[in-house]
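Figure S4 source data
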Amino acid sequence: MKTLLFSLMCLCLVRILHGQEPFSRDEALKQLYNQYDAEKKTANWVCVKGQEHAAWPCWKEYSTVSISVLLVAQVQEQGVEEAYFVASAKPANAPLGYECHACRPAIGIAVFAWKAPHWALQSGNPAVGFYGGWGGPPGVDIAQIGPEKHGILLSNSDMAQGFAWSARSLLIPISSTVDEVWSIQDEQDNLGAIDPDDKLNKQVAYRSSAAVRFCANYQEANSSSDYFDIEVISRGTDREDYNHPLKKENWTEIYRFSNGKYRLLQHADFIEIKK
């Protein structure tokens, strides 16, 4: 019995010595944010470009931020285990709170790679951009954007006076930082602004929506295969303003990654014929 117990202890010790340490959220946050406090879940904020558009003044009262972890995903890229880490930051002690329509948190992303005996930071940006609203973050998902590439896909929606819209944004690691490389408005309508019982309402209802997918079908022989193309298929109608008629939003677009961004490669309108 003693021999068996000793053998099991040795086996556990070998696994600990040769095993991979668990990914630590607190350690990741300490590397991504300035003076992160794991107990209070706060950090010191350094003002960045575009912050004024998120109802976030660059004042002392807004310099302490509360941090929330949104996503941790471990993937394999080129035989290396990597961890994609997404968090949001917003003012912790804003004098008037941070729950207005334009109050958008800062989305921060870090990518770590397992390099024994620890996780090493590869790319990071505490404020890739400001997304969401009413103090809350957007939807967050990890997407495979190439045979050995991944990115973070944000889904954001909003409504004002019955007019609704939603958008997608793609954030990926570029060298040592993380940037937004593509965005598109994928849905819009005015259905909430129309009262069907109002006989005097002259508004015409419109709605359009688009499906998005990553695919390798459009890669040409002389193009890079590191990143998939993005295909967007739109259906429906839209309206520029009250002085213009409805316009068809029936089209397909292909975007290809080039020079650090996804750029429009092809746009094709089409007409639906009813049988």
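Figure S5 source data
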Amino acid sequence: MNASHPLPNAPMRRVSRALRTRRAALESASARRFSAALACLGVSYALAWLELPLAQFTSMPGQSGGAVSSSLAAALTARVIVGVLYTFVALRHAWARWLIVVLCLASVALVSPLLPLEWRNFPLGAAVTSLELAAKLVAAVLLALPLRIRLDTRP
């Protein structure tokens, strides 16, 4: 019995339908695009973790230890939250997919103008950031395309 359902002992049709459609097999082209988008998200996630030690190399020597530890904690927390969001995308939740599309496009739009300055100061960091932004852009474009579910045509 589901106590939160308005009619006790009634099936939760919307939930079961949503679970079935999420688990349904995708058409081959959609499955390839979705797999490629997940691979791009994985690459961008790995590069985001690689940015952490690179940021420590470029930190100011006069910074206090408290400021560095709080910024490191914030960076770690952000990466864990993004990883959880990427997990929801891999489980094919539509809300997570569209949120990632918006976040990836916003990241590309806001960070790419800063790349020339970063390139002058720290070329390795700029290369990692450029690869990460490219992976995010490709993932956003692939995730924005529709995912078509394979229709079973057996009699």
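The CA atoms of residues 16 and 124 lie 48 Å apart. Helices lie at 13-23, 28-57, 65-90, 94-111, 115-121, 123-144.
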